[in-house]
Design a protein that fits this description.
This protein has 333 residues and is of the alpha+beta class. The chain contains six helices and twelve strands. Bound molecules: 5,6-dihydrouridine-5'-monophosphate and zinc ion.
Length: 333
């Protein structure tokens, strides 16, 4: 175990993180999060996402019985933005972006989280994710599937749901991952994340849970305290490429992982999670490996979170406990 301050290199983003493992006993008299009450009805007549209810934009939800996808009533991206003008100057660069935003309700049940849903229903969400990539991928280069869970991570509603933002351009994070995976493939002739998984399976100390087809680990370069990288063990480019068995195993693994998250501080855990697969244009993306990131904000308890502020905004990101310590704690949950 490394006990002295050091920096670790993020292979996926070409960025460094400062790790200061001896600082975990730092006093905290700052903000403490309110623990949200977990008493929720099966159906909430005031919820914008419950079946049959009217949404904020005026449209009504059907009486859906499993999953339900609709175009976001407040989309940040639109399919036909007004024609862009000339680039104003070398210093003021801009580029018009075309896209669309959707919302996915994971379940008609207002009171459940994904962890509490039956495995078959989680599996249905996996299918919807894959269908959405297939459909939107025909029109848009990047389709970002994500979930903000819990008020701590900015979720606007406790009803189990996620979002999809599709755009004709690669946003920053996937762009960095594209550069890094491509460079590694050109230099080594093998797939960065496949090689990385093999190494993690040998070392074991950062692995949190795995089954036949999937592995979840705290990446060596993790920034968030209990960050997780979730990957298929086989070389897979995109969600629609997953076999039936891989989809079943993914549903089981997510349920296991989310159970550990909820047990960690004995409380419903918050996070932002999302999928990164190869971009959807026709270029050769052999160097890509499908994966999901989970970014949970909690640090020491259900009420003390990590902030990305100060040194992190002005110098570089930092973490207090090592990836190995975090993985051990999650494994033991
Ligand atoms: P978040 O909880 O991650 O914010 O996702 C909820 C999304 O749902 C949010 O983007 C949309 C918001 O715009 N929404 C609708 O499209 N219609 C509604 O009636 C409520 C919320
Ligand atoms: Zn609801």
């Amino acid at each position: 175990m490394i006990e002295y301050p050091h920096r670790r290199y993020n292979q996926l983003t070409d960025e460094w993180v400062l790790v200061s493992p001896q600082r975990t006993d730092r006093p905290w008299q700052g903000q403490v999060e309110k623990i949200p009450s977990n008493q929720r009805p099966i159906y909430d007549p005031h919820c914008y996402l419950c079946p049959g209810n009217q949404r904020a934009g005026g449209a009504s939800n059907p009486n859906y019985e499993s999953t339900f996808v609709f175009t976001n009533d407040f989309s940040a991206l639109v399919p036909t933005p007004p024609e862009g003008g000339e680039i104003p100057s070398q210093l003021l660069r801009m580029s018009p972006v075309r896209g669309t935003c959707r919302v996915i309700c994971f379940s008609p049940r207002h009171d459940l989280t994904m962890r509490e849903m039956p495995k078959e229903d989680i599996r249905r969400v996996v299918n919807v994710w894959a269908e959405q990539i297939s459909e939107l991928g025909q029109k848009y280069r990047w389709v970002q599937i994500f979930e903000n869970k819990g008020a701590l991570m900015g979720s606007s509603n406790p009803h189990p749901h996620g979002q999809i933002w599709a755009s004709d351009q690669l946003p920053n994070e996937p762009w960095k991952e594209e550069q890094q995976q491509k460079r590694y493939f050109e230099e080594n002739g093998s797939i960065l994340l496949i090689d990385y998984v093999k190494l993690e399976q040998q070392q074991e100390e950062r692995v949190v849970v795995e089954n036949n087809n999937w592995i979840a680990l705290v990446p060596f370069w993790a920034v968030w305290p209990f960050e997780i990288l979730l990957l298929p063990k086989r070389h897979v480019l995109r969600l629609p490429d997953l076999s039936d068995e891989e989809r079943d195993d993914l549903a089981s693994l997510m349920k296991e992982l989310l159970t550990k998250y909820d047990r960690l501080f004995d409380n419903p855990f918050s996070y932002s999670m999302g999928w990164h697969g190869a971009p959807n244009d026709k270029a050769d993306y052999t160097h890509w490996q499908l994966h999901a990131h989970y970014y949970p904000p909690l640090l020491r308890s259900a009420t003390v979170r990590k902030f990305i502020v100060g040194y992190e905004l002005l110098a570089e990101v930092q973490r207090d406990l090592t990836a190995e310590q975090a993985a051990k704690r999650l494994r033991e949950c």
